[in-house]
Amino acid sequence: MLNIITCFKWVIDEADIKADAATRKLLFGRAGYKISAYDRHAIEEAVRFQEQHGASVAAVTVAPPSAKKCLKDALSRGPDSACFVNDPSFLDLDPSQTSSILAAAVRGRIKFDLIICGEGSDDLYAQQVGPALAERLGIPCATCVSKLTYAEDEKHIIAERRLDDGMETVLVPLPALVSVLPGINTPRIPTLKEVLGAAKKEIFNVALEELGDIPGPYLKTVEVVAAAMDRRGIRFSADEEGVRSAVNALFKEGVLSQGVL
Q1: SS3 content of the chain, % helix, strand, coil (to 5)
Q2: Does the domain at residues 3-210 carry the CATH identifier 3.30.300.20?
Q3: Where are the domains positioned within the chain?
Q4: Measuring CA to CA, how many Å separate 57 from each of 7, 38, 260?
Q5: Model confidence over 122-152: pLDDT tens digits?
Q6: Looking at beta carbons, which pairs linking 51-55 to residues 24 or more positions away fall under 8 Å?
Q7: Is the dihedral angle over the CA atoms 53, 54, 59, 60 positive or is it negative?
Q8: pTM for the whole thing?
């Protein structure tokens, strides 16, 4: 039977983020939190393997203690158990720290054949945690995976990777780590029964002092501001003459160049 770990991140819901009109600084005061949409696909893929091959699935996250409610959401989506690696200092971690903490928490505590991560996260989308975690654990890694198949007899997985210039199919011996693209599946919506059943599933807590030395950040976020949109304010009618005059105005301002249209 396969033992699968699926990693997820608890992030601010971008739909709740507001921006100050004058300074463009982001306002998070009333923002809620959710499981990163990319990681929902990772959880779903792990649970599908569970259904198809009788695998066991453990969901793992790194977060401050206040994020504990994320575990119920994750467990309602199908995993058998959850590992909550938590400490008040686990705020605004960079990818190197997150991968170090995950590796320290997983190594020697959770048996695994396969680790499934999302390709990125809704907040940073650094795409580094999965490959860095695989490197720290000393296992092979496949990224940008759009289809995943388990060859039970040969103890490896077949991963189809979507690249910029085509598709690549690779055979990856287990244990291994894969990061999956959103197109790999459609995450299920938990039923009321599944939500209630999540409260009965096992949760393992791992504290900072159990992890050993964790490196400091390599990256520091100095500032995040909303994008500015420069509107030209050109008004035109919907008829042919109106559209022509608007396009000519854009040519004169240098916004458009000859050959664009």
Answers
A1: 30, 30, 40
A2: no
A3: 3-210, 230-261
A4: 10, 18, 52
A5: 888 899 999 999 999 999 999 999 999 998 7
A6: 52/150, 53/1, 53/2, 53/150, 53/152, 54/1, 54/2, 55/1, 55/2, 55/3, 55/4
A7: negative
A8: 0.84
